[in-house]
Design a protein that fits this description.
This protein is mostly helical. The protein has 10 helices and 2 strands; from the N terminus they run ααααααββαααα.
């Protein structure tokens, strides 16, 4: 949800979206749930690679990175094949694995604690939330709610960028992300809510427009928090982008940061309402 950058950055963002959006719409709307699982696994893998490359650990261990990525990528499989009942057990198993690894490889308890916390955070922050896409897809009209989510977050991102560049004055979180403004955040959430209402009007999602607007506002705000969370991690690592895979957007983690928290938020809201 970056608001910085010039017209060149905006052109790159538009071109990247031009190629990515049809692919995502096809996978979400016109393929079987297995392909949502496969896509989720691939995204979690790439995001965890970038997360481990942040180099926030005092001592970098490639074998630890590989273990953390493997454990994280296992989460979508657990969600898809074993369901909700196994999700908590899988997380506890992940913490246990990281604990054993950290205690066996670290030279002191402090470094072991940092290693365990960093590996566990990767699962909590990336793998588990993003794996909720699989549960979201399984809901009634799940594919269209997934598309709703992407539209709201993309609209939020686009309007935040445009409004922030045009009238942004007050900094939202200057120590974490100096380029983000309060005006951009408000414009993004408002734009996302408007697009959500338009989408719901034509798609008939089965909820009143009041609920649709409220849901869009909630996931818009939660998306901003996710964006700031990733910015804080990058600030700690002293880097601007988590990667360079997607032109105009940086890495995969840069692109999905504002999706990570809204995915489980939307799922649990809908699981309660539907």
């Amino acid at each position: 949800m970056a608001q910085g950058g010039g017209s060149g950055a905006l052109v790159k963002r538009v071109l990247a979206a031009f190629f990515l959006i049809p692919v995502i719409v096809f996978v979400v709307g016109y393929t079987a749930p297995f392909w949502v699982f496969a896509s989720t696994s691939a995204i979690v893998f790439l995001a965890l690679v970038e997360y481990n490359n942040l180099s926030l650990l005092p001592v970098r261990r490639p074998d630890g990175d590989r273990l953390a990525i493997a454990v994280g990528v296992a989460m979508p499989a657990v969600f898809f094949f074993l369901g909700k009942d196994a999700a908590l057990a899988a997380f506890i198993a992940a913490v246990f694995i990281f604990f054993i690894y950290g205690m066996r490889t670290a030279t002191d308890f402090k470094s072991a604690s940092i290693d365990i916390a960093f590996r566990t955070l990767g699962v909590i922050y990336i793998a588990i939330p993003f794996s909720h896409l699989i549960f979201l897809r399984a809901l009634p009209d799940g594919r269209w709610w997934m598309l709703f989510l992407f539209i709201v977050i993309w609209a939020n991102d686009t309007f935040a960028f445009a409004v922030g560049k045009t009238v942004g004055r007050r900094k939202l979180a200057v120590l974490i992300s100096p380029g983000k403004t309060v005006e951009g955040a408000v414009g993004g959430v408002a734009g996302g809510a408007v697009l959500a209402l338009v989408y719901a009007y034509f798609m008939g999602l089965g909820l009143s427009m009041v609920y649709v607007a409220a849901i869009a506002i909630i996931i818009g705000i939660v998306g901003i928090i996710g964006d700031l969370a990733e910015s804080a991690l990058k600030r700690g690592a002293g880097i601007k982008d988590s990667g360079s895979l997607i032109p105009g957007h940086g890495g995969v983690l840069d692109r999905i940061d504002s999706l990570i928290f809204p995915i489980p938020a939307l799922y649990y809201i809908l699981a309660y309402l539907l």
